[in-house]
Design brief:
Among the domains are: 78 residues, no CATH class; 103 residues, Chitinase A, domain 3 (Roll). It contains eleven helices and seven strands. Helix 2 packs across helix 3, helix 2 packs across helix 4 and helix 6 crosses helix 11. The two termini are 56 Å apart.
Amino acid sequence: MLRLHTICAMVSLAFFVFISSCKNNGDKSDGKIIAKAFDKNLFLDDLLNAMPPKLKGKDSASFASNFINGWVKKQVLIHKAEENITIDQKDFEEKLENYKNSLITYAYERELIRQKLDTNISDLEIEKYYNENKDDFELKENIVKVVYVKVNNSSPKINKVGEWYKLKGPKDREQLESFCYQFADNYFLDDKSWLLFNDLLKEIPIKTYNQEQFLQNNRYIEMKDSLYSYFVNILGFKIKDNLSPLGFEKENIRNIMINKRKMELIDKMQNDLYKEAEKNNDFEIFK
């Protein structure tokens, strides 16, 4: 039978204000029990330590009620599990030990990485890696270099956008940028970056059943619906299953190289510790 103090459901708002006040003022709770489930007790100190310091009034009451109820539910689940599952004590202790060791080593490795990992990777290093591993960079989707603008049909100078987005004149980009900052509902003007063509299709209502054929036969695209006009300038494209361009893979390569450095740093740390322990006769292997 579950024996549970009903404080969490019946305690008054004034009590919760008192709890919040205790936490903010650093008062001690002298081991006051605020809930009990089976043979486990929840102390006021546990609640005070968990409660954010700036909570007051109803927020304090809500947090306390949720915390207590959450603790009770956890104890009920643990008790039910203990009743219905037979645990091999030796196996259980071994798993706990392994878990503890994993947490300790993970924390140590994370701190080592934080202190010593060099995350500076130059463009030359990225390019070298790319050139040496081109077989790993096959495009899985079609990509494009593009400039596009989505603008409300009531916007001023909309007829001019139809000229500027083609970027044929020396001042077209400047004029287009100025217009987009003021009036466009959405736009993309970074013609140096590659985008997935499928991501472009999420922004522009282009309908096509053959992406490759569409890209090969379209450069300037103008569309209109009841609310918006769309202007798309496809400056370049790459078809899937071909070599992915370096510009599209740059961040991917940077992450690959950083992860490789992490593994090398951890391996070196482990080998250095082994050699140091071996030198100091800290272990012995019996044959």
